[in-house]
Amino acid sequence: MCHVIVTCRSMLWTLLSIVVAFAELIAFMSTDWLIGKSKAVGGPETDNRTGDESEEPYRPSLGIYGRCIKMSPVMYARRDRLCGPYAENFGEIASGFWQATAIFLAVGIFILCAVAFVSVFTMCIQSVLKKSIFNVCGLLQGIAGLFLILGLILYPAGWGCQKAVVYCGQYASAYKLGECSVGWAFYTAIGATVLTFVCAVFSAQAEIATSSDKVQEEIEEGKNLICLL
Question: Which of 27, 113, 131, 142 could covalently link to 200 via disulfide, CB atoms 3.0 to 4.6 Å apart?
Fold first, then answer.
């Protein structure tokens, strides 16, 4: 018989697992890993104070496999920003280090998404093959975190690639930004990686909460829906 067990700690772990998976996925797909040096748009704009025409500065952004640039208003009247992948296939990713980053992050995110999916069903299923599903998921989250760490460590090593130099200037090199700055996607990936390990540790608390004496007492009383907040 399926017993639906909901506790504060198990629900918090489930929600955090879902948030972490989505945060890593969004960061991976974003183009805002590097914010490039200031450039000028092709079309001029008029300075209202002086009446002179000047080129509006902007800063392009570069991701692991995508980029965002600002287009000339003469050529693209309806869209001032053009975002999309610069690499048509895996081999065209700008750096070998970024290719490794993409692999490690993709594996880590895949594991996190799988755990997030399974976590939704932990209210009804608490064990698989006599193994606690919380402990198994926590172990998988720890493994995913290791893959994510490897990817994030390797990513700055690719800052010296030709693509990054175009965006960041000639002084850009491995682990040196040059004229670029780190975008929100990189910080999001780091924060989500830290939370991944928090989830892995907290899964043990979710296991303790759903197998407590109080839960067992309510199961023995014949209750199918057990909610302990």
Answer: 142
Tens-place pLDDT, residues 169-191: 889 899 999 899 999 999 999 99
CB of 211 closer than 8 Å to CB of 56: no
Cβ atoms of 108 and 148 within 8 Å: the answer is yes
**Phi/psi at 34 (5° precision):** -125, 135
pLDDT score of 137:
93
* Residue in this structure with the two tokens 């692991």, named with its chain if needed: 64
Cβ proximity of 161 and 13 under 8 Å: no
DSSP state string for 76-134: -SS-SEEEEES-SSGGGSS-HHHHHHHHHHHHHHHHHHHHHHHHGGGGT--EETTEEHH
Contact 58, 39 (CB under 8 A): yes
The secondary structure element, H or E, covering residue 212 is: none
